[in-house]
Amino acid sequence: MFKVFISNSIYERIIISEGQKNVSARSNLYKLLVQQQTQKLSVAETSYLKTHPEEVLKNPSSLYILEITPSEAMNIQKSYGVMCLRGDHPNISPLIDVNDIHISYEKEKLGKGWDSVLDSVEKLPSNALLLTDRYLFAFRRPDAGDGIANIRDILDDLLPHHFIGGDYHVTIVFDDKSKHYSYTFDEIATKLNRIKMQIHRNYPIMMEVLGVTPDCSIYNKLHNRLIVSNYYLVEAGHKLAAFNHDKGTARQMLIPMALFTEGSLNGTSTPPLKAINQTLTTLRDFSKSLKGLSDHNIYLYAVNGKRMEKCMEIRNRLIK
Q1: Burial letters for 82-106: b for 16+ Cβ neighbours within 10 Å, e otherwise?
Q2: In which region does residue 218 sit, left (phi positive, over 0), alpha (psi from -120 to 50) or beta (all else)?
Q3: 268-309 residue pLDDT tens
Q4: Which of 7, 26, 120, 180 is most solvent-facing, going by the fewest CB within 10 Å?
């Protein structure tokens, strides 16, 4: 859940100075503070985060604006994949969408494929990813959309090169009944786990795979093809298996989005954050229901390539 943690001294300074301006002249930061859930931190609480920066992962999708040095803020952001800004000139522009839209065509080149599509979001900090596409593994031919190859390209672009917050979490959700006839669930889980070695990251990656069936309560709520992280969303109109290297596998729109837009901060449109919350709420509710589920045959589940008999909860920190 997105939330703003801000040192009380910074909050008071922004609210007082911006509150004296005309409404049209107020900054996006001020608008964000008055629209979103905000928790003010005392001097002691700010000092505690400075000495225990790993605590930011208890709220991994939040924005931290702290009375700390620029180097301290950047170190927290790079190490733990959370947005952390210093208090003197906090810049929230990376959280505001740049209206970057890509349209692919079947068998036609689109820049560098996923590498080009993800340019506007790949530099945002992250500590987890969630990918949902019921038909992700419906094909095995590269020109029709190889799900494994596309996941490899997506993860190689989006996973940070530095992370010290324990396991980086990746969860992939697809429809097990719609996979290509030559695939088994175990094969998919094994191949996805191998990607961790192929992309050469120097931190542990938790690879979680959930194969749902039409009998699952969340099946009809997972129609959209999405990549979700803590500060961005990428939506594919047709499929996440969108490329064969740099050539499209279908005609579709591919839209990377940061959490907010200028219009949403001005109250004239809906923020992409709402779509992220809807998806995470769906999976969070499903995760909570698993312990009381009487029939665990309506899904298949694996962690780090190992098939599990039951899933007692989804592990991804985005839904905690």
Answers
A1: bbbbbbeebebebbbbeebebebee
A2: alpha
A3: 999 999 999 999 999 999 999 999 999 999 999 999 999 999
A4: 180
- pLDDT value of residue 68: 93
CB count in 10 Å sphere of residue 51: 7
> How many Cβ atoms sit within 10 Å of the Cβ of residue 246?
16
Q: Which residues of the chain have pLDDT under 50?
A: none
Calpha distance 282→133 (Å, rounded): 14
CA distance 249 to 252: 9
Residue-wise burial string across 223-244, b where 16 or more C-beta atoms lie within 10 A, e elsewhere: eebbbbbbbbbbbbebbbbbbb
Q: State residue 20's pLDDT score.
A: 83
Q: 237 is written with which tokens?
A: 């109109």
* 287 token code pair: 């995760």
- Say how far apart CA 276 and CA 318 lie, in whole Å: 10
Residue found under tokens 């009380």: 8
Asked if 228 contacts 276 with a C-beta cutoff of 8 angstroms, the reply is: yes
pTM above 0.90, yes or no: yes
Handedness of CA 59, 61, 62, 68 (dihedral sign): positive
In sequence order, the β-bridge partners of residue 65 are 6, 85
β pairing state of 168-175 and 205-212: parallel
Cα–Cα distance, 88 to 66 (Å, whole number): 9
Residue pair 101/117 in contact by the 8 Å Cβ criterion: no
Q: Decide: helix, strand or coil at residue 258.
A: strand
